Model the fold of this input.
Amino acid sequence: NIFKDKKAHIVRLDNLLKTKKIHGTKLFPGHDPFYPTDKRCEPVYELCIEYGLPVVIHTGIHSENNAECAKYNDPKHIIKIAQKYPKLAVVIAHFFWPKMDYCYELTKDIESIYYDTSGMADPEVLEASGGFDKVRRILEKTVLRKPDNVVFGTDWPICSVRKHRELINSLKISQKSKDKIFSLNAIKLYKLGIP
Done:
């Protein structure tokens, strides 16, 4: 929790980013009661901009349908971050399940917003989000509009890697777009230095 000893955590985060031991960071609004717009998050955003690396923001409800946490990570707050920090790459983790359509409509025109697929093939997420076909359609629509802004994720070991691969492979998109999702977009976004 960066808020407990913020100065020490920011120094540590700076060192980890500088030495390339990490290639971005993740915030968990909803796990803890804070919004992404909380001023205490600003040093994190500024460091990510300085190093040209993304911040991943947890979104959606938690298991057991805890909708209370979603009020903290609603994409409407993430949009404010993207507007305030246009050079910051923001990854929306879990596509704000189960309200994936809402997330897409709200964020589709913001180029600095990315999406990861983590958790999207989980049976609980699929059921709560309208089923496999609906999730597939939302992903297809997103990839067709923003082919460079979707990165593969699974939320392993909680979720199945195989099911997430199957979800991406089921998309009616080009193999080139699938290659981007599976690796190329992440290599570029996280500056992994893999040719």
The mean pLDDT is 94. The chain has nine helices and five strands. The first helix runs from residue 6 to 18. The CA atoms of residues 23 and 191 lie 7 Å apart.
